[in-house]
Amino acid sequence: MYKNESKLQFPEGFLWGGATAANQCEGAWNEDGKGMTIQDCLEFRAGNIKDMHKQFAFTSEDLRIAQTETDINYPKRRGIDHYHHYKEDIDLFAEMGFKIYRMSICWSRIFPNPEDDEPNQKGIEFYTNVFKECKKYNIEPLVTLSHYDVPVHLINKYRGWYGRECVDLFAKYAKTCFEYFGQYVKYWLTFNEVDAMLRHPVTSGGLIEDQFDDIPFEQAMYQAMHHQMVASALAVKIGHEICPEAKIGCMMTKLCFYPFTCKPEDNLATQQRMRSVYRYVDIQVFGEYPLYLQKEINNKGFTVHFEENDEMILKQGTVDFVSFSYYMTSCWAASTEGLELSPGNTFNGVKNPYLPSSAWGWQTDASGLRYSLVELYDRYRKPLFIVENGLGERDVLSEDGHVHDDYRCDYLKEHVCAMSDAINLDGVDLMGYTWWGCIDIISESTREMSKRYGFIYVDVDDYGNGTYNRIKKDSFDYYKQVIESNGTNL
Questions:
Q1: Hey, which family's this protein in (predicted)?
Q2: Which residue in 133, 193, 388, 393 is the catalytic one?
Q3: 111-161, pLDDT tens digit by residue?
Q4: What gap in Å lies between CA 315 and CA 304, rounded to an integer?
Q5: Is residue 388 annotated as part of the catalytic site, yes or no?
Q6: Which residue of 157, 192, 218, 315 could cross-link 287, Cys pair, CB 3.0 to 4.6 Å?
Q7: CATH of residue 406
């Protein structure tokens, strides 16, 4: 149980809100001209998955089947039907008092074929309406340009982000978004959890291993990451030119590992593990490859091809702030043999005997959030934004027709206390906080509906059965109270 050490206090104008992603909530996967994305091709996989390779395994045959079959359970195709419920959902966010709503734009809804010259006007119209609805309630949108939904066209033609062509196509897409939506959107992110390519290359980059028999797959991942770094920098530069007042940030998975023991080798292994978390955000903040990443690539015998102006592009396209997801912590050791592993946000770590675990095995740790905030601010000296944090549990409707989720309120309370201490005791510049899955959505890790994060229950099961009605949980009123008091009434 986290015990806060400071008087609860948050800056005036602190941005409280919630977060979703297009591929997990919108549905309407083939309506109004939308093109197919990798997320439309991922099957339902339920449960506590400890084998990450198995969790993210995907083949060219899987892709072929997804483009031709219709009787397989692809949950992301339906989401929670936010595409047709966005007004109702945003109205509920406004009732909670949201100051900001983090969401993403689906590239394939704007350009069904990324090589199209003109955007899909139905897609432009949908997001314009969403932004207008937010503005009606004085909710600031925080928009992610790419959230794990690589267009299938890019996979079929260019092997995903391995193809250099993706850089210019993404720059065109970003420019279109800034031109059409810049009047509504002040806060932007380029890529969601940009560090994730080397953990799950299919969703992050559209890379399918069996398509790379001409090059080591790991080298292909490094090259694809470079292309995303260049594309991100170009998007930042374009965005600042079109929308001078915009704040454009990066977004990372804030994995946090403690050494399992005080043995020097465990501490060294943990330090090396943490470097792998920061390596690509270092590029987005400092505008160049860190030497340790260059050594890592070279020592593996790989090369990353740079075009003539890439170094200059990286320098010119550094971000304004650093945002991140934080859910839990794990331990790490020089050798994990004989140690119990626990699942987490797209990785496995050594189980910490001092922490509780959720139904999915994620170990909750509010102290780790404060630790992470200090660590990030000391490293980057840029404003920080927590854009994902939350607790996934098996919520059920009780006989009275409500969800009594005191466990979610307790989780939120502890993490708000940790944020307050980081701000008031540690001097961290924190812009805001958006709870992940503020309304129940399809889980990214398992593609199931059963793993629920929301303050709002959506009546639909893992197979799409249900009324899709929205029902306030107890945590809805609790978060409303937190926001009304600017984090001081817990």
A1: Belongs to the glycosyl hydrolase 1 family.
A2: 388
A3: 999 999 999 999 999 999 999 999 999 999 999 999 999 999 999 999 999
A4: 17
A5: yes
A6: 315
A7: 3.20.20.80
